[in-house]
Amino acid sequence: MATDMPQKDIETIVKDQDLIGRRHLQICDAALKLFSRKGFHRTTVREIAEACGLGIGTLYSYIKTKEDILHLVYRRILESFEARMLEATRGIQDPRLQLKAALEETLKIYDECQDVVLLLYQESHALGRQGLQGLFEVDRTYVGFFREILDRGIRAGQFAVKEPHLLAVCILFLCAVWDLKRWNLQGYTLETVIESLTTLILNGISADPLVKLQPQ
Amino acid sequence: MATDMPQKDIETIVKDQDLIGRRHLQICDAALKLFSRKGFHRTTVREIAEACGLGIGTLYSYIKTKEDILHLVYRRILESFEARMLEATRGIQDPRLQLKAALEETLKIYDECQDVVLLLYQESHALGRQGLQGLFEVDRTYVGFFREILDRGIRAGQFAVKEPHLLAVCILFLCAVWDLKRWNLQGYTLETVIESLTTLILNGISADPLVKLQPQ
DNA sequence: GGAGGCCGATCGAGCGCTCAATCAGGTGCG
DNA sequence: CGCACCTGATTGAGCGCTCGATCGGCCTCC
After folding, report:
1. Which fold has domain B73-205?
2. Roughly how many angstroms between the first and final C-alpha of chain B, as a whole number?
3. CA-CA 20 to 30 A from B54: which of A135, A186, B79, B155?
4. Which nucleotides on chain C have any atom < 7 A from a protein Cβ?
């Protein structure tokens, strides 16, 4: 599962693989905080070095360019998202309930990590072509996950969807509204959003319109 | 209509208001192309000056900072979006049809102006607080427009929506999927997306589930 | 002649990145 | 054990450069 994404392995001066791993974690932690607060462009490499307790030169022993740091951060984030997602929906049989659970978990993740999601949407264009391809790949597996749920629901006759892939993309995208439009959603709670989106989507794709979730 | 948004009027050296207006248009046109192609940060003021046929010094007679240019561009874009939107839905009585028309027009705009929409989502954080407030204001009127349609539909008993504002935000946001996730939507046509989103949303909020649009 | 608009050479702050010097820990030898 | 040696990680001053912004002189038109 995405463990073998197109790695674009970062060139390092240092040889020790174990050390590289630890340092990369260190760098990610520091960079993530700074990027979230100030954005990628406004954060200097010096700041990152200072924040993770390394000299600039040392930092550059573990990366080749500033962009590499962004790449590290993204990779780490998306892997953790995907893991949580799989964990939260594993073993649910009913497609309707599984979709509901997937939506709920994604929104919870997005709620906890709003800084990160903003970073993903706003700064990803700072990556080069190769870096973007890597991101796309991960996103595709995430979307593919929603798509599988939709497909199962369609086969079971519960969902009426003509373009499952398109819809999967839309559903996942819609979750980001909570982060990208939060300034226009003040006053709403996470629970309200979960409920509203779930209702909208489940009703929107339901094959049997009489079985409405949360009819009220 | 948004003509009196919090203007954050740009300080200029030049006095002639008419000239300022023309020059600002000139600057917008040039900057928009460059920003779309290279993003805000990677575009230099020198390039903008050259592209709009002004000297750097002259350009700086019509703005105070580089950020001002972004602000000008955004203002112009959003005003034109709103105008098209109003034009396309004016006079439609049935809330269902009006919502459908609003969705369709928004998606068409977003299709034509994908560079611009990307710019809006990716670079808006380069604006200061004041600039952002201005954007938010315009976005709110745009959202408010969808909200009015929803409210009318609710009063008419056609829509079952608990949180109309939240839903309006979601609907408008969802349209951006066509631009922000286009790399994952290759192969789909604008028409397919319009149809799928319209179906999803109208079914998702319909009070009477038996009246499905495009049941097929 | 002077006010208003135009110009681009110039400034200097700030950036990503390098590299020669330094340090720490392991290894072999007497 | 102690010393010499070596490899590889660490350091930060500084290089080269870019960019936003300025400023003083120039042109044009009333």
Report:
1. Tetracycline Repressor; domain 2 (1.10.357)
2. 40
3. B79
4. 4-10, 14-20
